[in-house]
Each structure stands twice: as C-alpha cells, then as structure tokens.
Amino acid sequence: MSKLGKILYSEEEIQRRINHMARIIEKDYEEEEELILLVVLEGAVYFLADFTRALQKPVKIDFLSIGVKKDTEKNRIITYVKDLTLPIEGKSVLLLEDVVGTGLTLATLLQHIESFHPKSLKVLALLDNPAKRLLHLTVHYRLFTMPDTFVVGYGLDHHEDYRHLKDIHEFTLP
C-alpha cells in the first residue's frame, strides 16, 4: 500500500530556496538581453510559476512535453508530444527540471535542445538525485540535493496524484 511520508522540503523552505536561486540567476544572466526558460511538462509547472514570480528579470517561457515508452527490446524511447515553439537559436536558455535522477532523459533532452543552437544551455533542477545518476552530466543549479527516495508534492506525482501538495513528501511505493 502506498504511503505519504514525512515532509522533506516544506513550502517555506522551497520558497526560500527559489528566492535565493532567483537572485543567483539574475546575477549570472545580468548581461543577457533575453533569457528563455524551457520547462518539461508537467512536474515542473509549480516550480516554474514560483520561480518566474521570484525573478526580477523578464523571461520568455516555452514548454516541452515528452512521452517515454518502451519498445519491443525494453529500450526507452522518448517522443516529443509538444516541441519548442520559441526560436532559441543564439539565445540563452535555462532548462527547468523537476527531478534529475539517472540523467538518461535529461541527456536526451539536452541533445535535442542543443540541435536548435542556443547561445548557452544550462539546467536548473528543483531536486537533484545524484545517487541515481548513470550518466555524467552537469546540473548547473539545484534547489535541493535529495536523498535517494521517491517523492511527491509541489508538482511531483505518483500516477497523477499528490501534485497539489504544497510541500515535498517522501512516498512509499506499493
């Protein structure tokens, strides 16, 4: 039976870290005329909303939506349900991710985004789980380095449930 566990990151902690990270991003991108935030739907939507409100720098926002399925050989295949609509060639791009785990999906996303030739491409993760990492890749900014556990809340789900929670909770899988 699934069980909602203890709060790992409270709403207050999340907001404090978002505000702190917004100041860092503003400083790091102060020379840039335009910053484009790319967001993978749906887990990072709460993060995006709070982060953009904390920023004191105008940004443009675009979304990617991916589908992950297995082919007959049990390989994961990523398909783009919704691809980029903003032109990003020659622009500074910041990819907002909810959770970076193995790095396999993120590596595929980064390769795809790079094919549009942005000026720069960096990653901002709400949660980074380096214990799961299978690929070496750079997470430039992170709000939290999480323990190796399953989590829900603040946009993160289990079978589309629990996204609405204001805090991030441990979650015991069935």
Keywords:
three-stranded antiparallel β-sheet; Rossmann fold; 9 strands; 174 residues; alpha/beta; six-stranded mixed β-sheet; 22% helix; single chain
What does this structure look like?
Strand 3 (60-70) and strand 4 form a beta hairpin. The protein contains three helices and nine strands; from the N terminus they run βαβαβββαββββ. It has one domain (10-148): Rossmann fold (3-Layer(aba) Sandwich). The protein has 174 residues and is an alpha/beta fold. It has a six-stranded mixed β-sheet, sandwiched between helices. Strands 1-9-8 form a three-stranded antiparallel β-sheet.
Question: How are the SSEs placed, and which strands pair?
Answer:
Layout: E1 3-9, H1 11-28, E2 35-41, H2 45-54, E3 60-70, E4 76-82, E5 92-100, H3 104-114, E6 120-128, E7 141-145, E8 151-152, E9 168-172
Parallel strand pairs: 2-3, 2-5, 5-6, 6-7
Antiparallel strand pairs: 1-9, 3-4, 8-9
Instruction: Give the C-alpha Rg.
Output: 16 Å
Q: Specify the CATH class.
A: Alpha Beta
Biggest sheet statistics: 6 strands, mixed
Q: What oligomeric assembly is this protein in?
A: single chain
The number of helical segments is 3
Task: Name the average pLDDT.
Answer: 91
What portion of residues is helical?
10-25%
Strand order of the largest sheet: 4-3-2-5-6-7
- What is the CATH-assigned architecture? 3-Layer(aba) Sandwich
**Count of all domains:** 1
The termini sit apart by: 5 Å
